[in-house]
Amino acid sequence: MPAKTYDIKPKGRSEVDLLVALMDATTKTWMDNLKDVTDKEFKWQAIKGGHSIGMVVLHMVMAEYWWIQGVVLGQEVDMKFISSLGYDKMDIRNGVYGTPIKQPKEWYLKQMKAIRRKTKAAVKGLKPSHMGEGRGNKYSLRWVLHHLIEHEAYHAGQFVLLQELYKNTRKR
């Protein structure tokens, strides 16, 4: 079998293009890893109100929305959008993710794809040093994109753990 070639090809030549390409590569990896996960497994919670793959995906959608639209662009957050993701019932800092939304896995993934399209449109033409404000601090676009890559990678590890927990609870 011939060796595979691995590369990340940004759509342009800028630093922002590279960071967006890295975000897309990270997202593609975890989405590919979830392709065989059932709807039931996607919404399963080890403890009531705790992590589920689906609700963590929605948390990542919300994080990307807040960082790009709110911090980088300085826009008001859309409470209707937040509510549509169930985020108004979450308390992430205390591990409360709420009840998974009664939608198929593809709906959750569609939310991620939609926010990524919005992110790409928002950052197009911005300089990596573009500064946004949030929580009383200033953040460069470069830092925000790096943070979002790191954030997704962190949660992708949780997806693996949740899949293992789900499988192990079914063996008993």
Question: Could you outline the blueprint of secondary structure elements for this entry?
Answer:
Layout: H1 15-33, H2 39-43, H3 53-72, H4 79-84, H5 105-123, E1 131-134, E2 137-140, H6 141-171
Antiparallel strand pairs: 1-2
N- and C-termini, Cα separation? 39 Å
* Number of separate helices: 6
Unreliably modeled segments: none
CATH topology: Four Helix Bundle (Hemerythrin (Met), subunit A)
Please give the radius of gyration in angstroms.
17 Å
What is the makeup of the main sheet? 2 strands, antiparallel
Strand order of the largest sheet: 1-2
Quantity of strands, as a count: 2
Number of domains: 1
Beta percentage is: under 5%
Mean pLDDT: 93
Which structural class is indicated by helix and strand composition? mainly alpha
Supply the CATH architecture. Up-down Bundle
CATH class: Mainly Alpha
Write the H/E string, N to C: HHHHHEEH
| Proportion in helices | 55-70%
Name of the CATH homologous superfamily: dinb family like domain
- Estimate the global geometry from the Cα principal axes: globular
